[in-house]
Amino acid sequence: MNLAPLTTLGIETSCDETAVGLYHRERGLLGHRLFSQTELHAEHGGVVPELASRDHVRKLLPLVRQLMGECAITPSDLKGIAYTRGPGLIGALMVGSTVAQTLAWSWQIPALGVHHLEGHLLAPLLSQEPAPKPPFLSLLVSGGHTLLIEVPALGEYRILGETLDDAVGEAFDKTAKLLGLGYPGGPALARVAETGDPARFKFTRPMINRPGLDFSFSGLKTQVRSQVPADPDPQMIADIARGFEETVVDTLAIKCKRALQQTGLTQLVVAGGVSANRQLRQRLTTMSREQGWQVYFPPLDLCTDNGAMIAFAGSLRLATGESSDASPPVARWSLESLKPLN
Ligand code: KG4
Ligand code: ZN
After folding, report:
1. CB of 180 closer than 8 Å to CB of 238
2. Are 273 and 317 in the same domain?
3. Using one digit for the tens of pLDDT, what is the confidence trace for 63-97?
4. Which of 3, 111, 149, 279 has a Cα at 20 to 30 A from 247?
């Protein structure tokens, strides 16, 4: 009997994680693996694009081989290969797309370019029981993006608000650097903030008194800078970190509430690296409970970049009949230009 293959291999190389995942249409996520380049970039205090691309070249194929071996998946089990086509660092994207296209060509299966943010956005649907169903509001908070998105149907995205300058994750990273907390800053700052006093430092919550759903986080970083003395003690660093985190969480919660009230939507789906933040998860959960809304988050290991979300988004797109697409990777790509997923 010749059963149709149902597994999609996902490849993610848009920034500093080399990541792969295998998603089976009926059995769900079979597995995912990633290699983080954190150590490689740490001494530079941020991602060095050329080093990122070179390391993807070294790590990607062994990681594909390892995951397929662990999950006992052979090329003939694969329906297709989904890879991140953009947005991201162009050299890093080139590695993932070239490897995906080459493997797909030699295994005679489709290779499909997936939008990185659609991957993030759909990650909370991957393993939730019950999973959120459109229409819903999505808050996407990552290192490169801060977006409020109305999702009337899968694959249809309307941006309601976005950051005018720094993304939330970027604000976490830059503030952590300012406080001497190293790289990557978001998780480090959140860890230190756990022991901080939320009442000691009060920062102005950016743009909450203006109408609309846009964000701005670069001024907050400047507010923090003005408070840090030349030689701060560890408690002061923890208190400043907590004050910063509270301000960010408040601002995001206020804008989510406004967007849900304006649209009449009752489900909030949070995604992207910053959705791993414990204070943010708690605040949005409490707010949603009080208002009678539902809130969904990805599992912690699928908040930051991973190959599972790319395999999942690719699997949904392949199931609708989308086939090979050899278009080159793109550093910028509008989420609103995607084809609906039905
Ligand atoms: O989604 P992601 O892995 O990569 C991009 O697509 O940008 O997000 C990475 C961002 C980084 O800025 C990182 O500092 C932030 O997510 N991040 C966090 C936490 N974990 C990761 N920020 C705050 N709290 C966390 N626990
Ligand atoms: Zn990402």
Report:
1. no
2. no
3. 999 999 999 999 999 999 999 999 999 999 999 99
4. 149
Q: Whose CA is nearest to atom 23 of ligand 1?
A: 186
The 10s digit of each residue's pLDDT in 120-179 is 999 999 987 889 999 999 999 999 999 999 999 999 999 999 999 999 999 999 999 999
- In angstroms, rounded to a whole number, what is the distance separating the alpha carbons of residues 14 and 89? 6
Whether residue 277 is found in the same domain as residue 315: no
Please tell me whether residues 145 and 17 are part of one structural domain.
no
134, two tokens: 């459109």
**Is the domain of 175 the same as that of 263?**
yes
State the DSSP H helix or E strand holding residue 194, giving kind and residue range, or none if neither: none
Rounded distance between C-alpha atoms, residue 51 and residue 38, angstroms: 11
Predicted TM-score (pTM) of this structure: 0.96
- For position 82, which CATH number holds? 3.30.420.40
Q: Are residues 278 and 154 in the same domain?
A: yes
Structural domain boundaries enclosing 281: 131-297
Q: Which amino acid is at 251?
A: T
Cβ 143 under 6 angstroms from ligand 1: yes
Q: How far is the CA of 184 from the centre of ligand 1 (A)?
A: 8
